[in-house]
Amino acid sequence: MTKFNLNGRAVETIDSDDTPLLWVVRDTFKLKGSKFGCGIGQCGACTMHLDGIAKRTCILPIIAVEGKSVTTIEGLGTPENMHALQAVWTEQGVPQCGYCQSGQIMSAAALLETNPDPSKSEIDQAMKGNICRCGCYPRIKKAILDVAANRKVKKLQLSEVATGPFPEDVS
Amino acid sequence: MKGWNLTRRGFLKASGIVGGGLVIGYMVTRDGPPLPVADIEGALTPNAFLQLTPDNMVRFYFPRDEMGQGAMMGLTTLIAEELDYPLNEIEVLFAGAHSAYNNPDFNLQGTGGSTSMKVHFLPLRQVAANMRALILDAAASDLNVSRSSLTTHDAQVIAGDQAFPYAQFIETASAAELPESATLKPKTEFKYIGKEIARIDGQAKSTGTAEYGIDIEVPNMHYAMVKRCAVAGGTIKSFDAVPILATVGVTDVVAIDSGVAVVATSFWQAKKAVAALTVEWNLPELANISSQQIKSDYQQALQDEKGDSYSEGDITQGFTAASKIVEREYWAPYLAHAPLEPLNAVVRIENGEADLWSGTQFPGVAQGLVARYAGLPKEKVRVNSTFLGGGFGRRGALTHITEATQTAMATNKAIKLIWSREEDIQNGFYRPASLMKIKAGIDERGKISAWQATRVGGNLTPSVLGVVLPGVLPRVPSGITNLITGAANSVFDGWSIDAVSIEGLIDDYDFANKEIKHITVDHGLPLTFWRSVGHSYTAFAKETLIDELAEFAEADPVEFRKQHTQDNPRLQQVIEMAGQAMQQWQNELGRYVGFAAHGSFSSYVAEAAQISIENGGIKVHKIVCAVDCGQVVNPDVVRGQMEGAIMFGLTAALYGNIELENGAVKESNFHNYPILRMDAAPTVQVVIVDSDEAPTGVGEPGLPPIAPAVANAVYAATGKRLYAMPFRL
Ligand code: FES
Ligand code: FES
Fold first, then answer.
1. Residues B246 and B381 in one domain
2. pTM
3. Which atom from ligand 1 is nearest to the alpha carbon of A22?
4. In degrees to the nearest 10, what's the CA dihedral of B342, B639, B695, B335?
5. Which domain CATH number covers B654?
6. pLDDT score of B23
7. pLDDT tens profile A82-100
């Protein structure tokens, strides 16, 4: 049994200790925004925040999450109440197939939390763990720069985020 | 366009089916199977694509697939324009499987070949215009005014200073005759077409709410993974299910056509169990083959020169007229598609009916495959399409649908089948490897007098046929579909007219005397379409050789291309446009430029690349891309597709390589099959030709010129010509 905090709520799961956080979040807690792309920490599609730090959750066993706070794309913002990055992503038509974008946005959000005004090469360094097979890189970079420039990023206290959808009937 | 043979009044509800929480009723056509559209009380459904509900909502049954290429945005734009309905308020639904949604270019329900806008631009506008005309007719009758006194604005009929929602006229419209050829809007009145509007699927994809096949869950669903032979075509000799069945969570271990399926109550349990399973295989001939062998077999075939050819002009005379003749060979390897969403499918079979949830490029074929392996008539199989997490051709080869269906049948469970990334890279379908030789001559005046090209490799068409046919003909026994595929293989053996395997190798330029030869050598690795298909390798050969010829002719590479496109003015125009942009880069220190142009999917693209050599590697800085894709429906989608195709092509040019060792693919995941990442991505500037020509392809044409543009830039930087992909300095 592992207890942790998911998008501001206390949760617990009986998934086996070695089950990666990604699958616990997707299949036990039914939050499908975080994606499976490679399973070996190479693509970033599964990126969530663990105590505010961007993590590849396909290789993060659930036991390592005990007592920690997890934020997923659903906890970052919703269609009704988008995070500044999500709003600019939407306005600027960043996504193509869209499959990588939850991970891209989570990586970008973590970057802007620690570095509100990143240079292009700092963006490259922070984002190069996220593959976009559709090749949206120029748009992703521009969107991050624009959000930073507009200083629109809400000072998000990750531990307080509780706006994301959450199933009531979790196991 | 003909209205669908739909009995508009008194829809017959054939069945009420629960699927993914939605209650879908079937409507019945006068002939043929029912249309898979929602049966909504009091709705107007004049055709297979559109539905107006009593609350004035419009539902659009989107007939293609959305894999990132923007077809959903593009086609919905056409509907909004001609129906005069707010674009962002249209409810877009993935159409189910039905021949009404066939792609006219394929006569199948399929998305590929950069055809979506080309085939739907006029027909879908007509469908929407007819519906608007029908509503206007009904309004004129209901309001008892002349039809010409009425107009529309944003989902409302305007009569003088009064406005009425479209839905107010549903009852009368339902009884009226559907106009068949309502006048389409002139370009000058376009509100949405050609305008800068953000994609309608952007928000769902930015908030994690867009639904992909891998996100689907149905009650009591079990997870399946399949152990396949490392060598394509291997069959099961033996396996021991007993220890695996004792693993926590595992419920079934069953043999299916492609391997052994392990079924468990969670994905993680299935993944661990399938890794622990050992299977003995009967290995096919391919198991004796490694990449080196393939290359040398191709070389040998090239020397033997057996094969069929096609020519125009007089190639012998062309070479006689030449003052200089060059002969070059080019290599392009096998490639995997690696869409970021691994392949997956959910199949549920119960009570003589089946449901499939998956994002595919061929929903109609998928329906046939489920029908075939579930032993059901096609009409009893519902296809619930989702967004595709990338396609690039890979989601046209649907063995994963077969696997999920066979597993569901063998276990009597609802099955969610997921491929791992390793399976995706190692057990898939591949862009064919190619060895190309081009011999070309230029005359005294610097004109190309002869162009003789040969391509050696596997043929795409019969390989694709083998994948598609069992789904297209679900009732035809596999022996016969195998026979047809086999026949296709021998028909195509050495036949130069498998257009998709050689496309682009002798086209584009004014070659008065040209010849193409094809030599089929196929070692049996499964092949399928890969973004831009044959063009993905032929443009590399053609455009790097053109660059060499320009040098021999002591001509500027852009001018040389312009001189040789007198008969191809649209290609010439993009060459001119990209060439101008390229001029502005020429003085940057340590940076070198290269140029290439290529026509594909009826569109024309020229690209210039600026690179430098850093730490012994190629660093690509900037790209300019000029494209003529006819009339543009959404400029931002066009730009996005050019950007994306360039990144996709750069991955192939710089890294892409699938190698075989004893018949098995050596690469396995993104650490050894790398994909371009942000720190290596160039900036891209896209210039679009303002055109009134019919819309043409956008998803693929941006790809072919990028590899040769970079190769030509590398030559400028290093003096070394590149003859093989991926590039090694
Ligand atoms: S799925 Fe986790 S990094 Fe790729
Ligand atoms: S949008 Fe398709 S992988 Fe990034």
1. yes
2. 0.93
3. 2
4. -40
5. 3.30.365.10
6. 28
7. 999 999 999 999 999 999 9
